[in-house]
Design brief:
Blueprint: E1 6-16, E2 42-52, E3 61-68, H1 73-86, E4 92-96, H2 105-112, E5 117-121, H3 131-141, H4 152-168, H5 171-180
Parallel strand pairs: 1-4, 4-5
Antiparallel strand pairs: 1-2, 2-3
Helix pairs in contact: 3-5
Length: 188
């Protein structure tokens, strides 16, 4: 396998207009009230977090995709087309979990036609090995916490703010990777 590539971890998560309730501080006797419309509108987000296998000075790269509903094989191929543009044709080793859409016949056929992409599978039941899980946690505890938006665009805007926050601190994406214990990317 060519190790002069980006190692990209990709994961999806669902979001909705129902707020993620988190504890907060307030003055004694002034319990904050979270008002929102009871709206079950849902969307799915895919995030890709990439590290260069041989040149850590190139920094980590983070991109995300938002889609109403949930991802299927066609939706994930659309995400991968964006990843291809995002990495400008550089070699990518994509690491993701065992979701059936990731390994469907149509996905494998599409990947077989891509000379820039290699797929690797995370072990089953091992979210602790995926640094994107820590990214989700960071976003859901900060930007998406107690967010009572009226539209999915509000959730997308908050997520984009979180991505800017994470990108503004170049050590943060590397801390997600370090937390997984996967340190020798060049060994991939």
């Amino acid at each position: 396998m060519n190790t002069r590539a980006w190692i990209v971890f990709l994961d999806e998560s669902g979001v909705s207009l129902l707020p993620q309730i988190r504890r907060t501080y307030s003055p004694r006797g002034r319990t904050p009230l979270l008002r929102h419309r009871l709206n079950w509108k849902r969307a799915s987000m895919a995030r890709a977090l990439g590290y260069h296998s041989t040149d850590p000075d190139r920094g980590a790269r983070l991109c995300f995709h938002l889609k109403p509903g949930s991802y299927d094989t066609a939706g994930l191929i659309e995400v991968l087309e964006q990843v291809k543009v995002f990495y400008r044709g550089e070699r990518v080793v994509l690491v993701w979990d065992g979701l059936s859409a990731h390994w469907s016949r149509a996905m494998r056929a599409w990947v077989a036609e891509q000379d820039w992409l290699t797929l690797e599978r995370l072990p089953a039941y091992a979210p602790e090995l995926n640094p994107v899980e820590l990214l989700w946690s960071s976003l859901k505890k900060r930007e998406l916490a107690n967010l009572a938006g009226d539209h999915l665009a509000d959730v997308a805007d908050a997520t984009e703010q979180g991505i800017h926050r994470i990108n503004a601190n170049p050590r943060l994406p590397w801390s997600f990777l370090a937390h997984t214990g996967l340190t020798g990317l060049d060994a991939l």
